[in-house]
Amino acid sequence: MSTASDSRSVILDIDNLVVGLGNKLHAPRIIDGVSLRVHEGETLCVVGESGSGKSVTSLTTMGLLQKGSLVPSGGSIKLVGEELLTASDRRLRQLRATTMAMIFQEPMTALNPVVHVGRQIDEVLRVHTDLDARARRAKILAMMEQVRLPDVERIFASYPHRLSGGQRQRIMIAMALVLEPKLLIADEPTTALDVTTQKQILTLIRDLQRDRGTAVLFITHDMGVVAEIADRVAVMRQGRLVETGTLDNILRNPTMEYTRNLLSAVPSLVPRAARAESKEPVVLEANELGKVYRERSLFGGVREVAAAQDVTLTLRKGRTLGIVGESGSGKSTVARCIVRLIDPTSGGVRLAGREISELSRRLLQPHRKRIQIIFQDPYRSLNPRVTVGETIAEGPINYGMPRREALAKARELLELVDLPPDAISRYPHQFSGGQRQRIAIARALALDPDVLVADEAVSALDVSVQAQVLELLDEIQTRLGIALLFITHDLRVAAQICDDVAVMQKGRIVEQGPAAQVLTNPQQAYTRALLDAAPGRGWDFANFRPVAAAAASL
Amino acid sequence: MAIETLPEPSIPVTTPFRPKFGFLTSTPIIAVATVSLTLVVLLAIFAPWIAPHDPVLLTPALRLKPSSAQFLLGTDGYGRDLLSRTIYGGRISLLIGVGSAVFSIGIGLAIGLVSGFFKWVDAVMMRVMDGLMAMPSILLAIAVVSLSGAGIWTVLIAITIPEVPRVARLVRAVVLSAREEPYVEAAISVGSSLPKIMWRHLMPNTIAPLIVQGTYVCASAILTEAILSFLGAGISPETPTWGNIMAEGRAYFQIKPSLIFWPGLLLSITILSINLIGDAARDALDPRMKQREGSK
């Protein structure tokens, strides 16, 4: 595929691009000498971790850099032979939409919430074409058919909030492609979507590209997505290009150390070797747990939404139970009910044999320390105004430990999570995302809990950092015999850390069992669909080979 | 495998988000405001040493004298020195301003924190606050003063009451958004008590907006006190306050306009300075403004 692409015309040619922070001569370089080329009908995936400069590259191409703060200071970007870096704002405005178009990560914020989506697409046509109203409408409806939206007449007149995330992204794609641009830049277009929706959107982009010969510059952090959609891959790190090559080459024979590390950090979908059956005591039980949200409308009607129903779970000491599911499946609701951040409306939670779901705040207090939670977003789960030491020591002090001892304990815990002891007097903003998550883990461990609930605890982290945090959790479990309740949407992560897995859909558990069984031999259609949609399921990234080859070699 | 995205933290240990006072001289206008306000405050504090005469000493023989070496700004209708009275007048005005800012923030903070956290308190408290806000503040103040007699404490309370709802609503709004933050939930799950959560995790979020609100309350309280005195509903007339001086000067406006001019000028400068400093504080403390400048 790639050899053929060389003969096709070059659509985007980025040559030795340099983007500096500010206008000064020796300004730090955010992008340092990046060269990329995208041919007609080809998908180039730019992959890298946060801070690698992949988004800045795409924004520079579109001419959308924040004026004055990021300044291209060298190299060239040619779109079908035309230089973009020196183009006037007016010309860039013309080129956007007609020759190049972009879709973004979060379709809700990219769409105007107070205008019908049809009119938003119409705006593109009104500005850039001479078509009359009827012709424009016909063209838009045809485009909406092409992005496989159902009931296009109705959706044409809908506001963005009436549509699902996937439908919104389809609208964005329709808007981007309605003028048949030669280049489509997709900046993490599926990151905010559920796996099943993600799969549909990726297929859609693939198909549209095949039909129209569009060149696609696809930006992502997810190796799975890369494996699904890329023809060629460019790996970036800290503003530099690490290596480029065909998909097969990069995945099978990466030449650079960094690429190898990146690939080996991707957790495999094949579950890890099962641990021996546990005879340890049960530390956490949920019995037919339910949470119903009641909404009273203005006219007295009551709307009930069951966020969780009949959830029954058992967790033994030293084991890891995963709850997987898509957004809205109720997995976080279950976690929050169990930790009693919200009160369940039915069912019970037994912690070490003691029923806690009915206890009042005051009576719950002594039990709180036995179950601790780690949150998804390490940037928001630490109070920015409190030092790391105080944050970790807060729990023990609440339970009567003298301040000095608590701080000494915080120091020990920092060591346990591989942070320097002098971190104790620093503030959270001085740490990276992975380090902050370690601090959050230290805080949870400070109370010596029996159960640790991790609510999407590694989802916001880069894969390499994710791998380190997973390793840390595993190590802590072996060392302290803690039980882990691991909530995640990522089946790969679940496969690597869980002993047992419960799959949730629409507030109910649809399938539950040992990880190896659920993830390799699913009994329910929904579980199968989930597994099927997991991007890059055909690849065993860490071993640089397709899964089929791995199976054959066993 | 060690590919941590950020280098080891090498930034010096700093306290983030502690309000910095560099904004007081950020532009020439703000600098002038800061200097003027400082002068007014110094005048008020050191009034007994600066003022050339006793501000309440009546000398009927020297009524309505023009400016002279003895009386720099002349005398009023009872023969009291206008300069001394104006200098002393600042004491009451500033005391009322600072006092009502402190009290309204103190009470408003407590009400706002509690009603931001407890739904049932919120329902009751906010209706009470709505009721208070529905009444014109001057009218409310006059009612309070006429019920319990004029005096500095009465006036202070009368001026503070209408300001409390504004502060309480501000604090409540901040608390409502801050309590959804995961770090507050984390504090709940490590067993922190409610007062601790409020004080340690919620209250600090309100400091910056309260500093800004405080300056506005201060300015408006000084103005309200002057209005009350001017209307004769404030502090007893023999005590020099800018409002009282102007109220008395009104009768002699045709003969000696400076009786209104000088205290009025000081009042305007004070209020303008405080408001300018308030605006500068808002710009400096508002994170959105900071983002616009692109600084950390």
Can you describe this structure?
The complex is a heterodimer of chains A (554) and B (296). Chain A is an alpha/beta fold. Chain A is built from 22 helices and 22 strands. In chain A, α6 packs across α8 and α16 packs across α17 (433-445). Residues 1-17 and 290-296 of chain B have low confidence and may be disordered. Chain B is elongated and about 75 Å long. Chain B has helices at residues 28-45, 47-50, 82-117, 119-134, 137-148, 152-178, 182-189, 194-231, 242-250, 258-285, 287-293. Chain B starts with 27 loop residues before the first helix and ends with a helix. Chain B has 296 residues and is an all-alpha fold. Chain A binds chain B through residues 49-51, 69, 258, 261-262, 264-265, 339, 341, 365, 368-369, 371-373, 375-377, 380-386, 394-395, 398-399, 420, 423, 425-427, 429-435, 440, 443-444, 446-447, 462, 464-465, 467-468, and chain B through 1-6, 8-9, 11, 13-17, 181-183, 185-193, 196, 200-201, 204, 294.
Key words describing this protein structure:
A: 554 residues; alpha/beta; 6-stranded mixed β-sheet; B: 296 residues; mainly alpha; 69% helix; disordered N terminus; disordered C terminus
Task: Provide a brief overview of the structure.
Chain A has 554 residues and is an alpha/beta fold.
The residue-averaged pLDDT of chain A reads: 88
Number of helices of chain A: 22
Strand content of chain A: 25-35%
> What portion of the residues of chain B fall into strands of 2 or more residues?
under 5%
Distance between the termini of chain B: 31 Å
The backbone outline of chain B, from C-alpha atoms, is elongated
Order of helix and strand elements from N to C terminus of chain B: HHHHHHHHHHH
Q: Report the radius of gyration of chain A as a whole number of Å.
A: 26 Å
Largest sheet geometry of chain A: 6 strands, mixed
Question: Structural class of chain A, please?
Answer: alpha/beta
Are there runs of chain A of 5+ residues with pLDDT below 50, and where?
A: 1-5
Major sheet details of chain B = none
Anisotropy-based shape of chain A: globular
Main β-sheet, spatial strand arrangement of chain A: 6-7-8-3-9-10
Q: Compute the number of helices of chain B.
A: 11
The quaternary structure here is heterodimer
Q: Would you count the extended β strands of chain B for me?
A: 0
What percentage of residues of chain B falls in helices of 4 or more residues?
A: 55-70%
Separation, N- and C-terminal Cα atoms of chain A: 30 Å
Helix proportion range of chain A: 25-40%
CA-atom Rg of chain B in angstroms: 24 Å
